[in-house]
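WARN  no MSA supplied for this record, continuing single-sequence
INFO  ligand: uridine-5'-diphosphate
INFO  echoing inputs
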Amino acid sequence: MTSLSVVVPAYNEGEGLREFQRRVAAVFDTLDLDCSVLYVDDGSRDDTWSVMESLRAADGRVATLKLSRNFGKELALTAGLDHVDADAVVVIDADLQDPPELIADFVAKWREGYDVVYGTRASRAGETAFKKFTSAAFYRVMERMTDLPIPRDTGDFRLMSRRAIDALKQLRERQRFMKGLFTWVGFPQASIVYDRDPRFAGDSKWNYWRLWNFALEGITSFSSFPLRLATYVGVVAALVAFVFGIVVFAKALIFGDPVRGYPSLMVVVLFLGGVQLMALGVIGEYLGRTYVESKQRPLYLIDRHHPPRSGDR
Ligand code: UDP
Ligand code: MG
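INFO  complex generated
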């Protein structure tokens, strides 16, 4: 029988997991598939793990995976994807912002032959104008700097076929910008539009500092344009300085201008100093990432893994 696995990364989600399981189980009952769900505990500090274990005791379709500490959502997701072998895999948040009921629509599209079916948010209700603006700006910058057509307003909520998962599993980079990796893999992709719900319980783990780092991650993982940008800024600054130099020289020769250089000197020195520091910073971003990759550490470490009890798979 064709199988479907749902991978759920969770960090301090103990409060909402039972409701999540109830809704996912209801969806499973309507599907003509061998379904299972894998909860990944990303080093939670609340009762998430014990809730997961009790869900597993109550339902044979539940598997659990516990990481040795908090590795972040991208790596929790990666760990989950490495531990499922179903024909189709759905990735979904534990906080019920992505409605599990949509999985049935994903499966229908997958049966039409699409390898990747992702949910696109129709509305961003309850988000501030500033958040909407920064997110729109991010997608625009991303589109211009990389060749990847990363779909807008699309999170990690998606279904992937076995061959798409197998392709994704070959990308073992440590700095994981999942949206970019999902897109890089390619294969026929379809989108389903949905409305994102507010969180069921608990708090979002995101803030603007994390979002900023996320954006840096995305750009430096998929584009080397900023490295070239430093060159262009340098060339332009040098040209301007050259023309300015000729003007100053000519003025001194023709009009015998006494050199009153202090203000302009300061401006030029500060400007060039700023540009150089910026360029160094950009190089540092890439160098730091190369350093992290070169250490070849494992992406994550497993504390415990309990497969589904239903032994028919
Ligand atoms: N998450 C995780 N590890 C982390 C942070 C978050 O596994 O370090 C999980 C979290 O439990 C949730 C999902 O990632 O299932 C999305 O997190 P969150 O709701 O905080 O993000 P948002 O929806 O605000 O983008
Ligand atoms: Mg959320």
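DSSP finds ten helices and eight strands in the chain.
INFO  checksum written, moving to next record
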